[in-house]
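Run Protein transport protein SEC23 through structure prediction, thanks.
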Amino acid sequence: MSEIPNTDQEGIDSVRMTWNNWPRTKVEASKCVIPLAASISPIRPHSEIPTLQYPPLRCKTCTSIMNCFSRVDFTAKIWICPFCYQRNHFPPHYSMISETNLPAELYSQYTTIEYTLGDKNHNPAGEFDVKSAFVFVLDTCMIEEEFEYVKSEFKRAIGLLPENAMVGFVSFGTQVQVHELGFSDMSKVYVFRGTKEISKDQVMEQLGIGVAGRRNVPGAGVGGYQQQKGMHMQNSGVTRFLLPASDCEFTLNSLLDELQTDQWPVAPGTRASRCTGVALSVAAGLLGACLPGTGARIVALVGGPCTEGPGTIELWLSIVSYCVEKELLINIKSTGIKLKPLMDAILTILHIDFVTRGRTIHVPHNILNCMDHMPFQIISKDLSDPVRSHKDLDKDAAPYFKKAVKFYDSLAKQLVSQGHVLDLFASALDQVGVAEMKVAVERTGGLVVLSESFGHSVFKDSFKRVFENGEHSLGLCFNGTLEINCSKDIKIQGIIGPCTSMEKKGPSVADTVIGEGNTTAWKMCGLDKSTCLTVFFDLSSSEKSSNPGAVNPQLYLQFLTTYQNPEGLMLLRVTTITRSWVDSAANSEELVQGFDQETAAVVMARLTSLKMEAEEGFDATRWLDRNLIRVCSRFGEYRKDDPTSFTLNSFFSFFPQFMFNLRRSQFVQVFNNSPDETAYFRMSLNRENITNAAVMIQPSLISYSFNSLPQPALLDVASIGADRILLLDSYFSVVIFHGMTIAQWRNLGYQNQPEHQAFAQLLQAPKEDAQMIIHDRFPVPRLVVCDQHGSQARFLLAKLNPSATYNNANEMAAGSDIIFTDDVSLQVFFEHLQRLAVQS
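Sure, done. The structure for Protein transport protein SEC23 is below.
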């Protein structure tokens, strides 16, 4: 087995920055081209981070926390805040502090430190503690084989949950069924219509929960779980629909054994009726009613696109909407629609009253509000109508897309206010609506896994990883908030990643916004040990700040992350880092030495993805090319108009190659990918650490042969050899590629002969390395084993530099391969880059 080095580049702070030395002025920062940004993994574990059992000391002016960069006057018992220079007195219990008796937070090596804030999960009513909750939302509109796969994995997940984790179950198809797990006498289900959005208050009333529940709850005092546990009625919602995993495992397994696929008939040539939006609304309402503010996850298992909703009368609804917006009356004669069907449609779908005056209908003003919150589907039921593509979205030809995104945006706001997470596990050959649901998953910090089938290892192994404990646990945490304190003259533009702005204003908020901005604090309903956020900074443009490094040559940034760990404890992690101000106008060498190429490439990829989604008509390739040319012109060494004289500093040597691969990646070239796949790729890019995100942009390639030990190979078609095995890691897939000769020997069974043990070991080595990669990664990547000239060799060829194509096939080495493409090679790309960078 090969030894792949794994150096920890993030260190104890888990922070990597594009520039580790900052220019002094806004003008100089703009000349750097690559934005000032930091990538932080807020709760990444590290063995050297101390945990303190006492509360931190905060500055009385800027509320930043005392850290190892604070100056201390031991005689006067005063510490000076490095952010605002405020003098703060130590409290009495710090009276013994001295140069030889320092608290842990003042030790220079502890730039990151963690404080225990206590257990914040005790239920307000005082009867029981809830550490975490999981509501599983299961799609029943799928074929029997897929349904058995997903039920089997569901049962396994229940067995892996902590015993005290609360569990709820919602199934959906044409309608939504909420299962009352606490009713032990028989299987009891509450049914909601799939055509109408349900508010939290309506969910509470229908389920009989809390004050909103007007009906008496059968079973509350007759053999039900409530009576057995001695619970009061105000908590009956929790104990009826959410039970500890240890108490409801048998009930859930029995229920799943009896559960069938959706029984509503599906006409030939149509899709099944699937009300995904309503199901998620009901699950969110259930959690909001039972456990507001408690760490909880909605785990959605979806097998197809949402089709249930008012799409069948879209024309009538658009007419009604238009008239209400313009405060007009609908004239039936001019619309050409008969009165009776329109009346029936409005009554049936919107459930509102209206008055008719002759041949004119007067529509009440509340109709538009009803429409705005309808759970619009992403596709019609007719199978001849294809699910929206990127071209449809570009041409605004996807009639359901914007309404669906608006619906999930409102669902995201509800979940964030409740402190709950939406996880999405989508498995289907068709699209399921990940692109529409992206806003809800990302803003709540949810997980997303996209696979072809519920029986595929990508889903099965990923789903298992979510609930596993021990070394390979994801470390799922809840109710996180991130606050950032900066030195004067540093402004925060925003964050790209799984979080939501808390709209906390302050002097550090920049005028320009990138991602989730206009704030110095962000909410992370769900986060885990691999969660990563990218923070974008700017410098103040005021005259007073023209030289921010004059008073202090160091700048300071502090990241405060409060979160609830899997055991239910509230923790506060404080990371304080310092960087140097440099005068890049006088001497750019210091600035260059602080450049992180890998981080810069990932930040540019995340920024490009954001612009492609937010800016209409954005040309990503042209934007990346222009920025790369500016970087090379700014930091390259050359004579004007002489491309042969161009050289690039070693600190920038790999950056053009990263940009070349980014231009060709699935994040920029969306052709041949569905909107769902693109949304999935971009969500993963935004939440993974720099090392993993860099692999998504520029995959790693390892070569195995008889002649040498396993070694890294160029990501180039020239690396293919008939007597080689290649291992490609592109993050979402791991490819083991056998050269032509190796494949022939394997097919002849040489590896099974005693005299060819070396060959058997050669075949085994990439398999073991591939399993190491798969074992440590979430979502679990797809494993592809292929041979040269085989159909699945495309998984490798699509990622390689096309240095040999059909245009220059005569130049290829024996046993190598060619790529049938018109894309330029890396060499041609560099030649054009050099020519443009040195232009006057």
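The two ends are 52 Å apart (CA to CA).
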